[in-house]
Amino acid sequence: MASISFIAITTIFIFILASSSCYASTPSTKTTSHPFKKIYAFGDSFTDTGNTRSLSGPSGFGNVGNPPYGITFFHRPTNRYSDGRLVIDFIAESLSLPYLQPYRNIVSNASRSDASHGVNFAVAGSTAINHDFFVKNNLTLDITPQSIMSQLNWFNKFLETQGSKAASFDDALFWVGEIGVNDYAYTLGSTIPGDTIQKLGISSVTSFLQALLKKGAKYVVVQGLPTSGCLPLAMTLASEDDRDSIGCVKSVNNQSYSHNLVLQAKLQDLRKQFPHAVITYADYWNAYYSVMKNPSQYGFKESFKACCGSGDPYNFNVFATCGAPSVSACSKPSQYINWDGVHLTEAIYKVITDMFVSGKETHPPFSYLLDMRHG
To answer: What amino acid positions are annotated as catalytic residues?
Structure first.
């Protein structure tokens, strides 16, 4: 994908901006266990439940406030980049907690937002590397100014408003969703090597995690990058001879895989630095890959086409993305893996969450983290 036009991919591979706000809802399923009283979440559009509220975003994926977003579960757009719930929503359900309010709703007191069960600081379009890096390299076309460190600043401001209530994180789960895909996307077609993005991005995420751990975070889950090469956007833009064994874009999946290996090594270092904390790695790459390798096993009939979009061969067209007036959605999103060309359906988010919570895609297992909390 290195030959892809920088402007083209920057315009459309941004997990960004919309104007609608997120609505609080009651989880549909609950468990009897209450190991945590709150969740603090961070990340980009794969985790954002409503922090993206700008009117000045680019043309691609700027219609998240319009139907059919949210059609499957909420039956209305909630500023989530999916037809329904995200991984973080299913995580909240699994812990018998309400869905997290976005930080910007808390700050504006939108809909009397309640932060007692945690806050979601994730914002679509966020990068791992600070925004100044992209400004310095003239790579600021239509990109979200927030980074993972911006989210840390939001977290710090939130804690200041909580006073003594924020003194201990014994009952808090810190969920760090995928962060870093945007960094690679924003620099495609530029002279900046992918290795540089990997080094700077992982360094920034490591510093972010160190800051949380120094504040007293004890239970932390960190998601790796997904198999981004399986997204319709990547499939559309990459050369047809750049494919791996499951038909996805080989160069992009290899880049994400390499990134995750380095990230996991950094997490191991952090475990040594903070032995009293439980740091779990959620293998987003392998979970997604497993579904793509055998979709029918998980109930999916369509692996590559977007449910909501237009155009051949992947039902994706940058000039007519999901939420635009002329674009419609498929009748059965639960049979699709991809929702809008970049983001996934509620159905696969549920499958991936099950792999994280009850399966083999968290290291150490999520059950171990829960045992340590109970212990």
So the answer is: 45, 340, 343
